[in-house]
Amino acid sequence: MRAVDLIRKKRDAGEHSREEINFLISAYTKGKIPDYQAAAWLMAAWIRGLSRNETAALTEAMLHSGEVLDLSALPAKKVDKHSTGGVGDKTSLILAPIVAAGGLTVPMISGRGLGHTGGTLDKLEAIPGFNVNLSLNEFRQVLAECGMALIGQTSEIAPADKKIYALRDATSTVENIGLICASIMSKKLAEGLDALVLDVKTGSGAFMKREEDSVRLAETMVETGTSMGKKVVALITDMDQPLGRAAGHASEIRECVDVLQGGGPADVRELSIELSAWMFYLGGKSKTVEDGRTLSIDMIESGKAFEKFKQCIRLQGGDERVMDNPQLLPAAKSSLTVNSVSSGYISGTRCEQFGTALAILGGGREKKEDHIDHAVGLEFHKRIGDRVEKGEPLATIHYNSDARLAEAQRLLLDNFLIQSEPSAKRPLIHRIIGQQK
Ligand code: URA
Q1: How far is the CA of 100 from the centre of ligand 1 (A)?
Q2: Full-model pTM
């Protein structure tokens, strides 16, 4: 087989066989196909699209490019959640302890912030000492001891994705459903899971802004995972405004602690409980999703989820005292309130711009090697449907440097949409794709 023939085939809208996909992935991962040919094939695939069969073959080829964890020595079912990312999306750090406290194993391999969206690993690193770079052996040990562990992608896990993702990032071939599905599912299925809950975001703060695209991505991922023998369900959830009141690493950890203590913003609590409920259900811990909800609430109210997160922080080298004393988390030196210049009702937000505002304050990366300031953050005071008066605070910026403060302030002010009539509140969970209750 030759790469040039496969590029031509995809360019001319042909459908690849499983063998052709295996050849492309295996040869590229081993360095036998140069970047320029892989990039040409990616662009052809981006333009022509990948069929469901091609997507499944690509996912499997990328999954088997590295190690697939064998966690069969751990008796509990292994369940994870993956979110396609948004602003203020911190549910992993709440649901992992809920589900581990309820008796399932959560082997979570997560990513860093991407574009305007935050990343679980970066949030965890706001906790002094927390080590997300465990070896796979250490990962297994923490899982055996406390039922949850949170690490970054290692070189052993889906190496093909690591190489291909870097190339997609540099060749503008990220936003394609088949390529996104293969990238996400190959990494997640390498965790040796029994079941996976997908949180596919939709709206102005999501990668997929239109609901029909989010649904197509969700259906593709559910179908691909199911065809590989896993229980998979996808929740299409709202990202037309930030999740919760806080965006920014340390402040999001504080919000997680609040939820684990039984408080916190209603939307963060509701989504965390809903996703945990599905994890309990798919993992066989509850007979129905409704029972899963009851179990999730019990794990919060009893303090078991709170204690579980503390244990995980300790086992991964972090300072567990932050759970009782969140003031030990990094805090920004200064703050500035952004006040509304008109009266009316919040009808929507351009949520992606809030993620950009956080990034330019130092809470995100423009280049891969950029350093993150975990202390900076945004606090949102208004949600869609709320009344706001002229001069009333819309948001507070917590910052350390005023170099780009004015730009961040403008991004916040300009991207709350205000109109004279009240608009309907948006549902948090739009649809559920896959296995039904
Ligand atoms: N996240 C991933 O891991 N891969 C993609 O392709 C897009 C988002």
Answers
A1: 25
A2: 0.95
| Best of 63, 114, 161, 167 for a ligand 1 pocket test (most atoms within 8 Å of beta carbon) | 114
Q: Considering Cα of 202, then 203, then 209, then 210, what sign does the dihedral take? A: positive
Is 404 annotated as catalytic?
A: no
Give me 335's structure tokens. Answer: 């703050």
Are 47 and 57 spatial neighbours (Cβ–Cβ below 8 Å)? Answer: no
* Tens digit of each residue's pLDDT (9 = 90 or more) over 20-71: 999 999 999 999 999 999 999 999 999 999 999 999 999 999 999 999 999 9
Q: Which of 345, 330, 335, 431 is nearest to 382 (CA)?
A: 345
Identify the pLDDT of residue 436. Answer: 61
Test site for ligand 1: of 110, 184, 185, 220, most ligand atoms within 8 A of the Cβ: 184
Which residues, given as ranges, of the chain have pLDDT below 50? Answer: 437
Residue 178's pLDDT is 96
